[in-house]
Amino acid sequence: MHFNKFYDMGKIKDFFNIFRHRYYEFAKVLMFILAIVLVYWQMPRVGKFRFEYQLYKPWQHETLYAPFDFPIYKDAEMLRVESEDVLKSVKPIFKYDLGVTKEARAKLESSFEAQWHSHGVYNTEANKAALFELFDRIQIQGVVAHDKALDVFSPSTMVSLVKNKTATTVAFGTLYSMNTAREAVEQWVGQKHSGIDERQLSTLLLNVLHPNVVYDASMTKQEQDKALSKISLTYGMVQKDELIIAEGEIVDDTDYAVLNSLQREYATDSFLKNDSVQVQVSQFFLVALLFVMVALYLKALHNKDVYSELSKIVLLLLLMVVMIIPSYWIMKLHPSFILMMPVVMLTMIMMTFFSAGLTFTIQVITVLLIAMAVPNPFQYIFMQLVASMIVIFILSHHNSRRHYFITSILLFVSYLAVYLAFTYLSSVAVSWSSIGMLALNSLFTMLSLPLIFLFEKLFHLTTSLTLMELNNTNTPLLRQLAQNAPGTFQHSIQVANLCDEVLYAIGGDTLLARTGALYHDIGKVKNPMYFTENQHGGYNSHNDISNVESAQIIISHVLDGIKMAQKARLPEQVIEFIRTHHGTRKTEYFYIMEQREHPGEVVDPTDFTYHGPIPFSRETAVLMICDSVEAASRSLKEPDENSISALVDNIIKKQTEDGQFQNVDLTMRDFSTIKKVLKKKLMSIYHVRIAYPDK
Question: Is 490 in the same domain as 449?
Answer without folding.
Answer: no
